[in-house]
Structure formats: structure tokens, C-alpha cells
Amino acid sequence: RVAITAGEAKKKKKQKRLKEAKDEAKKEILMFKNNQEAAFQEKMAKSAGFGDDYTAQINKQAEVDAQNLDSCLEKNREEVVNWLVGIVADIKPEVHRNYATCGFAA
């Protein structure tokens, strides 16, 4: 009976060590999870602030680009209109090349 009791004691001691190791592992996992969550929240907070800054910067650059386009439009409007009117109004009557090759030409 003493041998069985010693075996049971070893078994209980081993189970106790396993339970302690399991509890310690759970604590470590929880600490790791909390650290990762805190780091993630910190990154999100930083990126949220950066996003607002970045959006404002993009909007400012878009406004500057729009003003530059408007000034170029006003500066070159007359020249472009005259160029387009010149191309459209300059009519040079010619016989189409297919007309001559199909036997319609006299």
C-alpha cells in the first residue's frame, strides 16, 4: 500500500506542476495579448492623427493645383481658341484616295 501511495503522490505532484505551468502560461499569454493590444491601439491613434494631417495636406495641394490650372486656362484661352478655329476653318478640298482608285474618276 505504501508503494501505491508513493506513486499516487508522484502523480499528484506532477499534476500540480502541470497545472501551475498551465496557469503561468495563461498569464504570459494574457500579458502578451494585452501588450499587443496596447501597441495596436497606440499605432491606430498615431495613424488617425497622421491621416487627418495627410488629408489636409492633400486637400491643400489639390487647391493649389486647381488654381494653377485656372491661371493657365485664363492665360492660354485666346491662343487655344484661335488655334482650334484655324484648324476647323482651314478647309482644303481634296479628292479622297478611294474615289480615284474605284473608277469613279473620269
Topology:
Blueprint (H helix, E strand, L loop, with lengths): L1 H88 L7 H5 L5
Secondary structure category = mainly alpha
What low-confidence regions span 5 or more consecutive residues with pLDDT below 50?
none
Helix content: over 70%
> What's the main sheet like?
none
Strand tally:
0
- What's the order of the H and E elements? HH
Number of helices: 2
Tell me, rounded to a whole number, the average pLDDT. Answer: 85
Distance between the termini: 131 Å
Bin the strand percentage: under 5%
What coarse outline follows from CA principal-axis ratios?
A: elongated
Rounded to an integer, what's the Rg over CA atoms? Answer: 42 Å
Structure explained in plain terms:
The protein is mainly alpha-helical and about 110 residues long. It has two helices and no strands. The chain has helices spanning about 1-90, 95-100. The longest helix is centred in the middle third of the chain and has 88 residues, at about 1-90. It is elongated, with a radius of gyration of 42 Å.
Keywords:
mainly alpha; 106 residues
Short description:
This protein has 106 residues and is an all-alpha fold. It has helices spanning 2-89, 97-101.
